[in-house]
Design a protein that fits this description.
Layout (H helix, E strand, L loop, with lengths): L10 H20 L5 H35 L4 H5 E4 L3 E7 L2 E2 L8 E4 L5 E7 L3 E11 L5 E12 L2 H6 L4 H18 L3 H6 L1 H16 L4 E12 L2 H43 L1 H17 L11 H23 L1
Antiparallel strand pairs: 1-4, 2-3, 2-5, 6-7, 7-8
Helix pairs in contact: 5-7, 8-9
Length: 322
């Protein structure tokens, strides 16, 4: 004989039990003319119908066992089922959940004709959210896509509380992505992807907990901007970089001029330093193996010739004056 389920202890049946009580109370409030004797008669009739259903269920379970015994060993091929390590089986007997929760992994037993079961995969699934056209808080239209990693954490709840847990989770992921991006500025979307992903993961996990779904991770894949906005942002970035380059070049020229002034002061204090610099320049030119070499003429030689010319002109002018 199949075990009976106590509505006061089973979590899902407790919800149904409370719902029946609430509906019963609401129906009593809607009918103020109902007397106490009338409500007691209604409760008594409901209890009698539940008792008849329980009796009918016991009879059907007994007949199912008789069928299994009469058709052995062929019935064992139908009664014994196997689920994998990553799967669980949720069994319904006459439309009610079998006590004990989901079965598996391994082998389990079902009764023919009165038991129905569903397999639930507990492995992590990946959902690629399609690109969503979102209007940001600063009125910029962007296209955002993401990846959601989730798994079934409670097989019984995922079957009993929602029609299609996977489809519902995917639709909720799309809606959450649009709502989250709509409350952010463009610069926040581009620079704070990790923060946005974390907030989306918490929001999805909280919403899907009642469906037996655990959202493990949310990642934003790409943020696509309009072509005109991309050109405007590129022009702005290019102008900013050119301005920084000009400032850096000006600072470099200023530092170089100060260094040259200091070098000229050092060379002026020591005339031999100019000759050493001259020799160093010749060494650098000869090391590069150039076909054309510019040989600078020492300034001292020119000074000597200029002084000789001035002395010759002075003597010539004195002789002509005599």
């Amino acid at each position: 004989m199949a075990p009976t389920i106590n509505p006061a202890t089973h979590p899902i049946k407790m919800l149904q039990f409370n719902t029946n009580n609430n509906s019963r109370a609401s129906s009593t409030q809607q009918r103020p003319d109902t007397t106490a004797s009338g409500s007691s008669m209604y409760t008594q009739a409901e209890d009698e119908s539940n008792g008849e259903a329980s009796t009918c269920g016991r009879i059907l379970i007994f007949l199912s066992w008789v069928l299994v015994v009469l058709t052995m060993p062929f019935s064992l091929l139908v009664c014994f089922k196997v689920v994998q390590e990553y799967e669980r089986a949720v069994i319904f007997r006459l439309g009610r959940l079998v006590q004990g929760g989901a079965k598996g992994p391994g082998i389990f037993f079902i009764l023919p004709c009165i038991d129905a079961y569903g397999r639930v995969d507990l492995r992590t699934r990946t959902y690629d959210v399609p690109p969503q056209e979102v209007l940001t808080k600063d009125s910029v239209t962007v296209s955002v896509d993401a990846v959601v990693y989730y798994r079934v954490s409670n097989a019984t709840v995922s079957i009993a509380n929602v029609e299609n847990a996977h489809h519902s989770t995917r639709l909720l992921a799309q809606t959450t992505l649009r709502n989250t991006m709509g409350t952010r500025h463009l610069h926040e979307i581009l620079s704070e992807r990790m923060t946005i992903s974390g907030s989306m993961q918490l929001s999805l996990d909280e919403a899907t907990e009642a469906w037996g779904i655990k959202v493990e991770r949310v990642e934003i894949k790409d943020v696509r901007l309009p072509v005109q906005l991309q050109r405007a942002m590129a022009a702005e970035a290019e102008a900013a970089r050119e301005a920084r380059a000009k400032v850096i070049a000006a600072e470099g020229e200023q530092k170089a001029s100060r260094a040259l002034r200091e070098a000229s002061e050092v060379i002026g204090d020591s005339p031999a330093a100019l000759q050493l610099r001259y020799l160093q320049t010749l060494n650098t030119i000869s090391a590069e193996k150039n076909s054309t070499i510019v040989f600078p003429l020492p300034i001292d030689i020119l000074t000597y010739f200029m002084k000789s010319k001035e002395c010759y002109e002075a003597s010539h002018s004195k002789s002509s004056a005599k």
